[in-house]
Amino acid sequence: MDFSELKNKSVNDVRELLAQFSSQLRELRFKALSKSLKQTHKLNALRKDIAKIKTFINQK
């Protein structure tokens, strides 16, 4: 997700996206702990996306 994509959305939409990404991150962490997650790079990408969203919300 690019920062420019976030600029086109409202703060409420971004907060909903943050909640969705947080739940996805939780699910991926559980899969990683149970050794069923093969694509571990998704964890880092999702964490970075969450950080971008939080930065965007703080700037508004």
Automatic annotation (TrEMBL):
It comes from the Bacteria. Coiled coil: none annotated. GO terms for cellular component: ribonucleoprotein complex; ribosome. Keywords: Ribonucleoprotein, Ribosomal protein. The keyword Ribonucleoprotein applies. SUPFAM superfamilies: Ribosomal protein L29 (L29p). Pfam families: Ribosomal_L29. GO terms for biological process: translation. One of its GO terms (molecular function) is structural constituent of ribosome. InterPro entries: Ribosomal_uL29 (IPR001854), Ribosomal_uL29_CS (IPR018254), Ribosomal_uL29_sf (IPR036049). Belongs to the universal ribosomal protein uL29 family. This is Large ribosomal subunit protein uL29.
